[in-house]
Model the fold of this input.
Amino acid sequence: MNIAVRYFTRSGNTKKLAEAVAKVAFAEAMEVSSPLTEKADILFLACSYYAFDIDPEVKRFILENKSNIGKIVCVGTSAMMKSIKRPVRRVASKAGITVADEEFHCRGQFKKAHPGRPNENDLSMAADFVKSLIPQKL
Done:
Protein backbone atom coordinates (compact mmCIF):
# COMPACT_ATOMS: atom_id res chain seq x y z
CA MET A 1 0.00 0.00 0.00
CA ASN A 2 1.46 3.33 -1.04
CA ILE A 3 0.69 6.22 1.31
CA ALA A 4 1.33 9.91 0.76
CA VAL A 5 0.90 12.93 3.04
CA ARG A 6 0.39 16.42 1.69
CA TYR A 7 -0.52 19.57 3.58
CA PHE A 8 -1.30 23.24 3.20
CA THR A 9 -0.74 25.62 6.08
CA ARG A 10 -0.59 29.35 6.63
CA SER A 11 0.23 29.34 10.33
CA GLY A 12 2.13 26.09 10.80
CA ASN A 13 -0.67 24.36 12.74
CA THR A 14 -1.55 21.93 9.99
CA LYS A 15 2.11 21.20 9.20
CA LYS A 16 2.54 19.88 12.77
CA LEU A 17 -0.46 17.63 12.28
CA ALA A 18 0.75 16.40 8.88
CA GLU A 19 4.16 15.56 10.32
CA ALA A 20 2.56 13.52 13.12
CA VAL A 21 0.48 11.63 10.53
CA ALA A 22 3.47 11.05 8.25
CA LYS A 23 5.61 9.66 11.05
CA VAL A 24 3.25 6.79 11.82
CA ALA A 25 2.36 6.25 8.14
CA PHE A 26 6.06 5.90 7.21
CA ALA A 27 5.71 8.69 4.68
CA GLU A 28 7.07 12.18 4.25
CA ALA A 29 4.85 15.18 4.94
CA MET A 30 5.15 17.49 1.95
CA GLU A 31 3.42 20.70 0.96
CA VAL A 32 0.73 20.58 -1.71
CA SER A 33 3.18 22.36 -4.01
CA SER A 34 4.94 18.96 -4.31
CA PRO A 35 3.10 16.81 -6.86
CA LEU A 36 2.50 13.12 -6.41
CA THR A 37 5.08 11.33 -8.54
CA GLU A 38 3.45 7.93 -8.15
CA LYS A 39 0.04 6.51 -7.29
CA ALA A 40 -0.96 6.93 -3.65
CA ASP A 41 -3.51 4.36 -2.53
CA ILE A 42 -4.22 6.64 0.43
CA LEU A 43 -3.51 10.35 0.45
CA PHE A 44 -3.66 11.93 3.88
CA LEU A 45 -4.58 15.48 2.94
CA ALA A 46 -4.04 17.98 5.74
CA CYS A 47 -5.49 21.47 5.44
CA SER A 48 -7.79 23.93 7.14
CA TYR A 49 -10.67 26.25 6.50
CA TYR A 50 -9.92 29.76 5.32
CA ALA A 51 -13.01 31.93 4.89
CA PHE A 52 -15.26 28.84 5.02
CA ASP A 53 -13.45 26.94 2.26
CA ILE A 54 -10.17 25.18 1.57
CA ASP A 55 -7.39 27.17 -0.04
CA PRO A 56 -7.28 27.31 -3.87
CA GLU A 57 -3.82 25.68 -3.74
CA VAL A 58 -5.39 22.59 -2.16
CA LYS A 59 -8.08 22.47 -4.83
CA ARG A 60 -5.46 22.82 -7.56
CA PHE A 61 -3.36 20.03 -6.01
CA ILE A 62 -6.32 17.63 -6.01
CA LEU A 63 -7.24 18.35 -9.61
CA GLU A 64 -3.68 18.29 -10.95
CA ASN A 65 -2.85 15.02 -9.18
CA LYS A 66 -6.16 13.19 -9.64
CA SER A 67 -4.63 10.34 -11.66
CA ASN A 68 -2.29 9.52 -8.74
CA ILE A 69 -4.83 9.68 -5.90
CA GLY A 70 -6.62 6.51 -4.85
CA LYS A 71 -8.53 7.77 -1.82
CA ILE A 72 -8.27 10.96 0.23
CA VAL A 73 -8.34 10.84 4.02
CA CYS A 74 -8.88 14.33 5.45
CA VAL A 75 -6.80 15.62 8.33
CA GLY A 76 -7.53 19.14 9.45
CA THR A 77 -7.30 21.96 11.90
CA SER A 78 -9.40 25.06 12.34
CA ALA A 79 -10.44 27.54 14.95
CA MET A 80 -14.18 27.21 14.31
CA MET A 81 -15.17 24.47 11.88
CA LYS A 82 -15.23 20.78 12.84
CA SER A 83 -14.57 19.12 9.50
CA ILE A 84 -12.90 19.81 6.16
CA LYS A 85 -14.54 16.85 4.43
CA ARG A 86 -17.32 18.76 2.70
CA PRO A 87 -15.15 21.23 0.75
CA VAL A 88 -12.56 18.53 -0.04
CA ARG A 89 -15.32 16.20 -1.23
CA ARG A 90 -16.75 18.91 -3.52
CA VAL A 91 -13.43 19.17 -5.38
CA ALA A 92 -12.58 15.46 -5.24
CA SER A 93 -15.96 14.38 -6.63
CA LYS A 94 -15.36 16.54 -9.72
CA ALA A 95 -12.10 14.63 -10.23
CA GLY A 96 -13.66 11.20 -9.58
CA ILE A 97 -11.75 10.70 -6.31
CA THR A 98 -13.22 9.04 -3.24
CA VAL A 99 -12.98 10.83 0.10
CA ALA A 100 -13.01 8.52 3.11
CA ASP A 101 -15.76 8.88 5.68
CA GLU A 102 -13.08 8.74 8.37
CA GLU A 103 -11.46 12.05 9.22
CA PHE A 104 -9.25 13.52 11.90
CA HIS A 105 -9.92 17.11 12.86
CA CYS A 106 -8.79 19.20 15.80
CA ARG A 107 -8.66 22.80 16.90
CA GLY A 108 -5.93 25.04 15.59
CA GLN A 109 -4.75 28.24 17.19
CA PHE A 110 -6.05 31.36 15.52
CA LYS A 111 -5.11 34.66 17.09
CA LYS A 112 -6.16 34.28 20.76
CA ALA A 113 -8.50 31.34 20.17
CA HIS A 114 -7.27 27.85 21.10
CA PRO A 115 -3.72 28.77 22.16
CA GLY A 116 -1.14 26.06 21.65
CA ARG A 117 -3.35 23.92 19.43
CA PRO A 118 -2.73 21.49 17.99
CA ASN A 119 -1.05 20.30 21.16
CA GLU A 120 0.76 17.05 22.00
CA ASN A 121 -2.54 15.34 22.82
CA ASP A 122 -3.97 16.33 19.42
CA LEU A 123 -0.85 14.99 17.67
CA SER A 124 -1.06 11.74 19.62
CA MET A 125 -4.74 11.33 18.70
CA ALA A 126 -3.88 12.00 15.04
CA ALA A 127 -1.25 9.26 15.17
CA ASP A 128 -3.76 6.84 16.72
CA PHE A 129 -6.26 7.75 14.00
CA VAL A 130 -3.75 6.83 11.30
CA LYS A 131 -2.84 3.58 13.06
CA SER A 132 -6.53 2.63 13.11
CA LEU A 133 -6.73 3.03 9.33
CA ILE A 134 -3.53 1.31 8.31
CA PRO A 135 -2.61 -1.14 11.10
CA GLN A 136 -1.07 -3.69 8.74
CA LYS A 137 1.59 -1.17 7.74
CA LEU A 138 2.57 -0.31 11.33
